[in-house]
Design goal:
- By secondary structure, the protein is an alpha+beta fold.
- The chain folds into two domains: 119 residues, D-amino Acid Aminotransferase, Chain A, domain 1, CATH 3.30.470.10; 155 residues, D-amino Acid Aminotransferase, Chain A, domain 2.
- Helices cover 27% and strands 28% of the residues.
- It is built from seven helices and 15 strands.
- The strands form two sheets. Strands 7, 8, 9, 10, 11, 12, 13, 14 and 15 form a nine-stranded mixed sheet that branches. A six-stranded antiparallel sheet has the order 2-1-6-5-3-4.
- The chain is globular, with a radius of gyration of 20 Å.
- The protein starts with 8 loop residues before the first strand and ends in a 7-residue tail after the last helix.
- Bound molecules: N-(5'-phosphopyridoxyl)-D-alanine.
- The site of N-(5'-phosphopyridoxyl)-D-alanine (PDD) has 14 residues, from helix 6 and strand 13.
Length: 295
């Protein structure tokens, strides 16, 4: 479905507005300092994929920077559902952003601010059949981000620069590596490798966002009898024959080339195919649930 901004609705601080009329104050600290956090959650036919874990992570991100989500969880869920209902996408990605609020620009914020809350909806992107058939490509960059990548901060300049560099090199994603060459995560994705038939990904720490799709993948893999190791790993490890990225917007996507070299045989492998099928099955299960009526 194509939809321009003209028929879209956004929620901003207590009001649903046409997207082109929706705005925040220029002294919003999100705009001035990137002083805020966000979430992206997938909605399939009106049913949200892992809404609870996404809202738990929003709470954690807010708590980490000392912002209080400006409404109760139940009300926030209603607002998120209503945003989906007021927009034309059956399969949507709902964007939720909380900033510290509006104040004259000074690094230290008054502690009396009311946080800004915005919620928008866009069509859930799907990787093209071509991309699924050939696999995605990546580049590696030495990590130059900050040391709190576990917070889902709206300060995404490094991610934007990573994505731009990947694009310049005709690749789909930039993956951050630490000084020793361990692969951490992508600019907007987590990454797994298949090494000796085990599924391997970097452990959760300050260098990695705790992706909801990452944790879903780990759970599904374990349930399917696949051994999972959360440990530092490198691209040149013996026995590595697959890589795959995970995120809300991609589910699971094989990464078949890295820095122009083939990963394994350069084709999507069986682990990525199996895990993608399991994630898509979870999404299809939502699709089979009774439809949610639009208002
Ligand atoms: N990005 N790592 C980073 C740095 C991310 O920005 C994201 C998500 C992920 C994957 O998390 P999840 O599985 O919960 O989507 C990992 C979102 C989709 C974005 O910024 O649009």
């Amino acid at each position: 479905m194509t939809a321009t901004g003209k028929n879209l609705t956004a929620y901003v601080n207590g009001h649903f507005l046409p997207l082109e009329k929706a705005s925040v104050h220029i002294e919003d600290r999100g705009f001035q300092f990137a002083d805020g956090v966000y979430e992206v959650v997938a909605c399939i036919h009106g049913h949200f994929l892992d809404l609870g874990p996404h809202l738990n992570r929003l709470d954690q991100s807010c708590a980490a920077i000392d912002i209080v989500v400006p409404c109760l969880r139940t009300h926030l869920e209603e607002l998120i559902r209503e945003t989906w209902q007021r927009n034309p996408f059956d399969d949507a990605m709902i964007y939720i952003q909380v900033t510290r609020g509006v104040a004259p620009r000074a690094h230290l914020a008054p502690d009396t601010l009311t946080p800004t809350l915005i919620i928008t909806s866009r069509e859930l992107p799907r990787p093209s059949d071509e991309k699924l058939a050939s696999g995605a490509s990546g580049i590696t960059l030495e990590d130059f981000r900050w040391k709190r990548c576990d917070i889902k901060s709206i300060a995404l300049l490094a991610s934007v620069m990573g994505k731009q560099e990947a694009h310049r090199q005709h690749a789909d994603e930039a993956f951050w590596v630490d000084a020793e060459g361990h692969v951490l995560e992508g600019s907007s994705t987590n990454i797994f490798a298949t090494i000796d038939h085990k599924l391997v990904t970097h452990p959760l720490d300050h260098q990695v966002l705790g992706g909801i799709t990452r944790s879903m993948t780990i759970q599904l893999a374990k349930k399917a009898g696949i051994e999972v190791e959360e440990r530092p790993w490198m691209l040149n490890e013996a026995g590595l024959n697959e890589c795959m990225l995970t995120s809300t917007t991609n589910a699971i996507l094989p990464v078949c080339h890295m820095n122009d070299a083939a990963v394994g045989n350069g084709k999507p492998g069986p682990m990525a195919a199996k895990l993608r099928a399991l994630v898509l099955e979870a999404m299809d299960a939502l699709r089979r649930e009774p439809p949610v009526r639009r208002s």
